Protein: Putative cell cycle checkpoint protein rad1
Organism: Aedes albopictus
Amino acid sequence: MLHTKPLLAKGVLHNRKMLTQSQFSQIQFSAVLNSYTMFYNVAKAINFVDNATVQLSADGVKVVVEDCKTVQATAYITKACFSEYEIAQPRKRKSTAMDGEDHETADDNEPLTSFGLNLKVFTDCLSMFMDGDYDSTMKMLYKGDGAPLVVILERRCEDELITECSVKTMEALEILDYDFEEDQVCSKVSIKGQDFFALLSEMDRNCREVELFISPDAPHFKFSTFDELGSESSFEITNSSDMLISFHSTETTTNRYQFAHFKLVMKTLALASKIALRTNKDGLVGLQVMIENSESSNIFVEYFVMPLCDGRIFT
């Protein structure tokens, strides 16, 4: 392929078939993770559907998945997680007199900031260097609308193994915008991640429904499961428990959810250092999970789970 030699010489690419020099000059997004192990673990944890929407911004990367408009997960890899992070900003131009107003508008060549991606294919690519005890780096390159996401993996070992993948992208999927309006929030609970995960792990994995009780009065926080015969098992946490970092509740709420949705959350909770749980007056529950990526950076995953209403999903 023509014009790839400068890229090969710079060490940007190692495969002549990936990008030409002219294509590289059009790159709108470039980022490097010195160690992508935790990124891979998080991507695998939210891969409960194949296709995801990737949103790029100056602050980091969001990967959003959604199942039947009833459960949504968003992984947020902050800019601080990357050793290199560059994203092209829309060029601005002054409006002309014909526009009728004096303001700045985006150029027609504004870069794309979101796209669809088969998350299973993407994680399968990343898994190639996940065996063994070696650290591996990941570089992502994205040219823009319709272009593939180029992933370059390098294992830091004596053999200096390098692989390059080109993952096809698609149009960004339509996703729901869950909004927790402050005056609709009933409770906010901050919980130690590993303690909460340990408790949930002891619950009956074969149950069909879970019930979440939160109240200003004792027992304050109660999590119950119900099987097909109606048998109940539960645990209670008071607001003075060492497991809780903070507790705030304005009214008593009791809502039920499909346990299958909480099972989807469990893979992420296994990585959590801290969990922030919120509920609103409609019974929507939001779980914000903080995962330590390094000493100076964190990855965040947010889940929204819709409640059941009369045995059916309430939407």
Summary: DSSP finds six helices and 23 strands in the chain. The chain has two domains: 29-89+108-170, 185-305. Residues 185-305 form a domain with the Proliferating Cell Nuclear Antigen fold (CATH 3.70.10.10). The first helix runs from residue 5 to 10.
